[in-house]
Amino acid sequence: MQLTRRRWYGVAGILAMISLGACSMPGAPAATAPVVSTATPDLPRGEPLKIVASNSIIGEFVTRVGGDLVEVTVLVPAGTDAHTFEPTPADGIALTQASLIVENGLEFEPWLDDLYAGSGTTAPRVAAAGGIEALPADAHAGEDTQAGEDAHAGEDAHAHGEFDPHVWQDVNHAMAMVRTIRDELIAIDAAGAARYESNAALYLAELQDLDQYIIGMVAELPAERRRLVTAHDTLGYFAARYGFEIVGTALGSVSTEAADPSAAATAALVDEIRAAGVPAIFAETVTSGDLIDTIAREAGVVVAPPLYTDSLGASGTPGESYVGMMRHNAETIVAALGG
Ligand SMILES: [Zn+2]
After folding, report:
1. Are 227 and 278 in contact (CB under 8 A)?
2. Each residue of 282-333: pLDDT tens digit?
3. Residue (of 31, 57, 3, 32) closest to 313 by Cα position
4. Ligand 1 mean position to 139 CA, how many Å?
């Protein structure tokens, strides 16, 4: 679990530890940490704070709140699958230069603990999803597959954490993440507080509008058509907020790292898709479409255009921003299921 925040010790705290000769304590930040100079509240303006964001969605949140007071490095590039990301040495270097590391948490970044420890950085880590009431990872597991589920469940048990990490699929949760990021930036850079506050307020207003836009879009879809099938279990929060039922997912897991399902599990999902009467199921931009194509063919339904689920889209695509990706998803879902 990465819900626990590693609290920022603060410059004063570090100086106190140094003066007490306590900096060799296990877990204490190193006295030479570059973060001491960059995070000072009297930091001369003109030198942006270096912030590392684990993925493109969080990177945009930090950029919108921080504006030109921050310089953001994103570890998992847009369009790439965060569940199975393999960091490079350059990512470790980025951590050592950072004043703050913002991750999603809820075990969305299973590779980050090792990267953090290996880099030797002393930058504080914050889980943007830390304050959010998370859904359990297995919310839909029991409904999915009957035959073949046993073998699959065994393989699956270690492929994901206890909670569903995809909190940003509910715009209200994205707003909570933005507030957390705002508060953390203020905590390390009090001199920028007014700017962080006003940047965040503007962005939060946009997100409020986005939430209402999605509610309005979904209202066009009769309630009995609000049924979703995706490649992996990524839309639980979207479903909970905007009134959808998750019929099932091809991988039957909140992680794309899960092994391919057994033939029996796939057959059971095909039966459920037919029984639910959905006209379309959804590919995702971050995972291979082969499995979803096979399931759609067998169920006799259409594969809708891919949804932006776990990452922003590439520059120039509708999903290049969080607002764009969520609008695109809502429009795509309503068009595909309404037809
Ligand atoms: Zn995912």
Report:
1. yes
2. 999 988 778 999 999 999 999 999 999 999 999 999 999 999 999 999 999 9
3. 57
4. 14
Q: How far is the CA of 80 from the centre of ligand 1 (A)?
A: 11
- Cα–Cα distance, 51 to 94 (Å, whole number): 9
Contact 56, 75 (CB under 8 A): no
- Distance in Å, CA 35 to ligand 1 centroid: 31
Q: 153 alpha carbon to ligand 1 midpoint, in Å?
A: 17
229: helix, coil or strand?
A: strand
Indicate the pTM of the whole model. Answer: 0.82
Model pLDDT for residues 194-219, shown as the tens digit of each residue = 999 999 999 999 999 999 999 999 99
Sign of the C-alpha dihedral computed for residues 312, 316, 321 and 325 taken in this order: negative
- Report CA(110)–ligand 1 centroid distance (Å): 12
Distance CA 219, CA 228 (A): 16
